[in-house]
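help with this:

***
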Amino acid sequence: MSTEVLSVRVRKELKRKAEELGLDLRSIVERALKEEIRKQKVKRFQKILEEALESMDLSEEEWIEAVRESRSER
């Protein structure tokens, strides 16, 4: 796995407290980035889904009924 250097400025107080507590800043930053990336992907997917549903000219009830019919055909 390749890595890149990420330079970030934080308040001195935060860095000092993190060091005092022995926190692994690298793992904290990686975890936070992964979570934010996941959130943004979900938001994008929801937006695409909403746009697709709007373009289909179906009401929510019609969509639900179509899904139910499709499931019952299996």
